[in-house]
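During the reporting period the student researcher (J.K.) took over the structure-prediction task from the postdoctoral fellow and processed the backlog of single-chain submissions. One of the processed entries is reproduced below for the supervisory committee.
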Amino acid sequence: MKCICLTAAFVAMQCAAAQVDYDKKIRSLGIELIPATKPVANYVKAVRTGNLLFLAGHGPTRADGTNITGKIGKDLSVDQAIEAARVTAISLLSTIKAELGDLNKVKRIVKVTGWVNCGPDFTDQPKVMNGCSDLLVEIFGDRGKHARAALGANALPFNIAVEMEMVVEVE
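J.K. obtained the following structure tokens:
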């Protein structure tokens, strides 16, 4: 009897988790998705194969179309870089929504890889990347927890502060 009750409770919790409306949750957090950005060279922003969506590198593009630029530790503070990572996460989510039509089709954020534009003495890349990771967990809960790499780069395209790519499991 205990086993049946525990199983029923687990199933009920799973159903409740599946009923979160991520589009509404984003709006409730005061986040506004932007129009999906266009590729800057000969590639596409997303490729779906099976139940995986691979997102190309995205930068910190604001709603007005401008990018957050500069080298962390020289031109930008760590806090500004964390905000750039958060803005990049919003750009990634905007591409997911454009590709799928609905963020509720996201089953899991699988992996995020991020490059931080910084000098050789800067070592807080993981802290910067938390700007993205924390937002994904805030929106998707456990489904937003992901594998991650946080890397330093001596230069990024157009001098953007961060660049990230993502792998997402989808319905």
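The committee noted the following: Strands lie at 46-49, 52-58, 106-117, 147-153, 162-170.
J.K. will present the remaining backlog at the next meeting.
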